[in-house]
Write the structure tokens for this entry.
Amino acid sequence: MFRPGGLCFEPITATWLYSELFTNGTLTGLTIHHLKPSKSQRTLADQIRRPSTVASSVMTIECVNPEGLRFNQMKSSSHQTLETRMRPILMKGHERPLTFLRYNRNGDLLFSCAKDHTPTVWFADNGERLGTYRGHSGAVWCCDISRDSSRLITGSADQTAKLWDVKSGKELFTFKFGAPARSVDFSVGDHLAVITTDHFVGTSSAIHVKRIAEDPEDQVGDSVLVLQSPDGKKKINRAVWGPLNQTIVSGGEDAAIRIWDAETGKLLKQSDEEVGHKEAITSLCKAADDSHFLTGSHDKTAKLWDMRTLTLIKTYTTVVPVNAVAMSPLLNHVVLGGGQDASAVTTTDHRAGKFEAKFYDTILQEEIGGVKGHFGPINALAFSPDGKSFSSGGEDGYVRLHHFDSNYFNIKI
Amino acid sequence: MEVVDIDARAAKLGIDWSQVNFDSIQLPPGEDFGIESDDEAVYQDDQSEFDTGFGNIIVVDHLPVVPKEKFEKLEGVVKKIYNQLGVIKENGLWMPVDPDTKMTLGYCFIEFNTPQKGARTRLFLMVEYFLRVSLNVWGSLQEAQNAKEKSHGYKLDKSHIFAVNMFDDFDRLMNVKEEWEPPQARPYVPGENLQKWLTDEKARDQLVIRSGPDTEVFWNDTRQKAPEPVHKRPYWTESYVQWSPLGTYLVTLHKQGAAVWGGADTFTRLMRYQHSMVKLVDFSPGEKYLVTYHSQEPSNPRDASKVEIKVFDVRTGRMMRDFKGSADEFSIGGPGGVAGASWPVFRWAGGKDDKYFAKLSKNTISVYETETFSLIDKKSMKVDNVVDICWSPTDSILSLFVPEQGGGNQPAKVALVQIPSKVELRQKNLFSVSDCKMYWQSSGEYLAVKVDRYTKTKKSTYSGFELFRIKERDIPIEVLELDNKNDKIIAFAWEPKGHRFAVIHGDQPRPDVSFYSMKTAQNTGRVSKLATLKAKQANALFWSPTGKYIILAGLKGFNGQLEFFNVDELETMATAEHFMATDIEWDPTGRYVATAVTSVHEMENGFTIWSFNGIMLYRILKDHFFQLAWRPRPPSFLTAEKEEEIAKTLKKYSKKYEAEDQDVSLLLSEQDREKRKALKEEWEKWVMQWKSLHEEEKLVRQNLRDGEVSDVEEDEYEAKEVEFEDLIDVTEEIVQES
């Protein structure tokens, strides 16, 4: 049952803030009854097999009228705190801080990248480690999985991006750059990949488009297109494909979001300085249908943009620099992760760091809850494609896999 | 345009004023960029002077009438006189001569040097700045005026007394009408209502905050659960802001001096006080006077720094007195003394009269009175070795502390001195004292002196209190020791207007908090302990300004623990935490409390407003948060009896407010719902658009995926139930047939 890098469990309290819902002017209070799980439910094996069912069996929600009174309407705006007990699965397989997390399309595999040189694949259900991809000789910054889950591409600080066979872990091809590869993204159809590289001795940061051959034997390293960043000294932290592979969306240290023509390499749009981010963009995550995307920045905000027009739609403000963002494919929720800079962490109380994954309502831009647990800043966040679980990766080297309990799906704001 | 604004803009553009030579700026004539000086008097002066362009010419009359031979001599004399007063323009002296007699006509014209054209427009722009910074530049334009004033009535000899006029005046005087017109009475312009904020219909309080470059004044609107902006200004002050003690004025500090702001609707500048590089300000308790402080680092590090203190009349802006000297003269005890210079240097006697203020320096206490701004009886009080003084908050009684001298031969002393008579009302000698701290109760009824004494071994100290009852006959003194004498005292605070006090004592990290009353149930003249709360995470005490409620706060090391405590009932109302809170301040009415995290911490800067009983009302986050201050209120006009009456019939009044609360919350939830609805609709619109676009692009996408049809999973998979049997073990057992 237990493999190296195995599992450990730790009950954790997630806090959801409830705004009361009221119907016909009468409020219905929510009370929570904690039910102790029975002994049999608590067996470890059971938890491993069905962590989500265990979590949901811990508690039920019942609607009652507290104190038998009608709530005064005045209290309607007050928040009630609803606590749920989710049992995250702690996945300790990396020795260095996590950098990136990604689920495959089916949501059964979770790929993690870290500053130790080996990307790892896990079962997304129970957190069992499935395998590693050995070959890089530097921190791995980013990865992407093809639609059929057969190919993995990784970008690394060892100045290469590598193509892997997901199943066998075999290295298929190595793209060599003169600079660290920061981000990778497969296009729709997986025939193209966009790779960004940092500035390095003699080179400035750039975006490369590579053709991905059907048969790895035919793979070549030539770039189809190379885009130079206007400010070559600033890193491009993320570049992804726009709708129908017609555009490339990039964001980086210069705080600007740019949309490029993927054919000609022409700069089509650039985010407005007034409404855009004020500091380095650290993360970018796009919706499943490529219609909109979310950016996280050191300016302590995350912003939601229309991918075609680059219109700013929403802004989510938090108290710490944002390192990672994710959007729920199921509910109108976005998650922001981050925290005080790692260099300042040791000087203050652990709570000062705010290493919390914060949930926001996508539409109302209001905070709805937070999931604590990491001992360092959160560097990576990912939602499973069914929206029923999410995982976070921290500077502490852990991946925490959370299966939501039923409470989560009942959140009303 | 305010100087502040100019400075702010300059700072934005990266211009350092000191590097700018204004004379080198040439502006196109007539161009003023639409900026008018706000100093109207000066503006009009400029107008009249420049309108004719002869403002730099004077006419000197009553000169001797001389023949041609003496012309040059006279010219020389006149030139000599006027060269002393200003620079005469080249060929600027013209003495007309009678064409027939060749005699002079007894008068001459003198034109003074004025800056070139272009300067005029420049002046419009910079006049405000020039006025403050470099009066000299401005002055050069007024040479003519100056010369006129200085030389008018100059006696050349007995029969020739100069009559000097401005050239422009001739024109003006020629045009004077023969008939006298009564001067128009200026309409009375009422001054601003400086107390308007007190008449707020919702009875809210104001607070000022500084964050980043901005200074903002808000109403604390707890019904809306948000602050309502009153006034906001970037770069309003160059260091900090401060309310006057009664809340009438907000004072800002600038390079050139201090300014006070206030008024009915928005904050307008009411007065400026020139004191360059002002560092600190302090008001007298009745806000009649403003004390400003500036100190300059000495060029030689061994010298003491130079200190300049000015006392201004707040309303007229007149400087009443200034004090200059080295820092030693203004610090307690002088060099080698016990403590360094502490602000305020001048301490004001209590009460609204603002009659006396005192300064402590080595072996002397100087008490000044504000009628003449000189020392009472023309001399300072000599008190050997005095280290601390403290005014009663209501009366002109000064308490002072003198430590032990002569290695314990002369005991330490705490004394109460009546001002202006300088009569010692009471004194107490104390033995083996290491330090004393004096705490006056806010209505001046009690004085608590915390005395730290050495233990017999002199290795450690323990604390006790000497409690003075000021209002009773002969001022009785009571000694109070804590239950555990060795407890260290961490904090002490009187209940405002009350008879109780709270003490935090014991050892960190979990000290105890005790409450005492100056009265017992039977005896009003005895101090009694009310309660001790064991092991509290607190290191600071914040009484509500109305008493009864207190916040036991754990700042700094305790990460911002807050306990809201009701001292009447001796019960905890709420415990809360404002993580890393650095500051706590009650509003002047005692209804709300603000806790803040200022920029000493990097993260989560901002403030939180709580109700008096510890319910969090709202929270505002601001990066680079520097300061928060409630606007003080003047004391109530209601008598104690009237207040009590209101408290009794509170129900009558509260109905109205409860109804209002209800209305507002209804409105709010209505607004909230509307807002949410609008947001949802807007979002739906986006989603619809995305969906239709996604649909349109379906075929293209399919092609990109080499013909793979589905976008969605559902069609692709079907759920199958698979039964799985596992044979774990097979054992064969022979059963014996019976």
Summary: The interface with chain B takes residues 73-74, 76-77, 105-106, 147, 187-189, 191, 243-245, 287, 289-292, 300, 306, 308, 313, 317, 319-320, 332, 340, 344, 349, 351-352, 354, 362-364, 385 of chain A (CB under 8 Å). Residues 236 and 252 of chain A are 4 Å apart (CA to CA). Residues 89-341+350-410 of chain A form a domain with the Methylamine Dehydrogenase; Chain H fold (CATH 2.130.10.10).
